[in-house]
Amino acid sequence: MSTLTPSRLSAGDRLRVGAAGLRTRPMRVFLSSLGIAIGIAAMIAVVGISTSSRADLDAQLDALGTNLLSAQNGTTMMGAQAVLPLSAEAMVGRIGPVTDVSAIGVVPDARVYRSDKIPAAETKGIAAYAARTDLLETTSTELAAGIWLNDSTAQYPAVVLGSAAAERLGVSSPSPDVQILVGGRWFTVVGILEPSPLVPEIDSGALIGWPVAQEVLGFDGHPTTLYARAAPDQVESVQEVLGATANPEAPGEVDVAQPSDALEAQQAADQAFTALLLGIGAVALVVGGVGVANTMVISVLERRAEIGLRRSLGATRGQIRSQFLTESLLLSLLGGLAGVAIGGAVTLAYALTQGWTPVVPPWALGGGLGATLLVGCVAGLYPAARAARLSPTEALATP
Questions:
Q1: Which of 118, 120, 165, 326 has a CA 20 to 30 Å removed from the CA of 67?
Q2: Of 319, 297, 391, 395, nearest to 16 (Cα)?
Q3: pLDDT tens-digit profile of 221-245?
Q4: What residues form DSSP beta bridges with 143?
Q5: Residue 11 Cα distances to 16, 77, 314, 319, 322, angstroms
Q6: Tens digit of pLDDT for each residue in 264-300?
Q7: Cα distance between residue 236 and residue 261, in whole Å
Q8: Ramachandran bin of 200, using left for φ above 0, alpha for ψ from -120 to 50, beta for the remaining angles
Q9: Residue 246: how many CB atoms within 10 A of its CB?
Q10: How far apart, in whole angstroms, are the C-alpha atoms of residue 88 and residue 242?
């Protein structure tokens, strides 16, 4: 007497059977996969935007160079403001690997105003700096409009505004007719700077020539910040001697820094923030997985008659289990594909508005789809096992 052997379902048959279950409930499929899509879209967008931002910052660092050092007057042991010697620039320039040196000096008590009608208390945080004529070249700062100070204009009441200072003063373009008050004297605006990533302090400054600051505004000539470019492979060695060279009598009263470190710190902070947002995206993904599991459990309860009919016609427990597991995987995969598309679109739109090159790492796309399938598998295991345990008589007897 021969025994009947259950027919075997191919992979294509399993896909067709699983997809048939989804096609009969399109609205439920849409709502269930929406949770997965939101989680994946959030993760892709966070990774894409942070990667695009880092790529833009890396490009800026490559263009600006990381070999710029700065030395500022610190504080004395008594807590007073220290003073850099008048010869500090010349001494720093004698350090062998140093290729360029420049400086700015804060002009004390020189308030900056757009008009003499403005109350004295409203400074808008704009400082007046005496600036060397080689400042832009040393700090890789660009001009947005007009001209920079030269040997001639540095001796006359001409001023170049940082980007933030120009905005606060309401000056959109330099002109011989545009003048501002610096320390109670009228200065003609001859230029406006682009934002300076490595030297942000000059963004909110009004920069005037060193000679005119001494002659007209009583500037004492002491620099408050030195900027030095060093050979790229000698930056650390120059950094070690910069304070002692700038102020040999009191090297401890000099603060030495590498401005690009601030940008790298910003990048590190962005990475930490990205990790936090990725965690939030993962939570959203888990919530979406719970939604899929809930949908599949309800589907098993509603389709007991179908399960009983298939079992009575010869379907094995394994075939019933694979049917519902396939449905769960397809449901999650639909949400994952939609999430990848939405996350990529959000990254593209945000990067373009910021002027960045959109970058979405391939591992993020692959990882997102992989996480989707993992969630779908885990979410479908219990409903599939529950469906497979139903006997034909029990399933058909259910109203």
A1: 165
A2: 319
A3: 899 999 988 887 788 888 888 888 8
A4: 193
A5: 9, 79, 18, 11, 10
A6: 666 666 666 666 666 766 776 677 677 777 777 777 7
A7: 13
A8: alpha
A9: 28
A10: 10
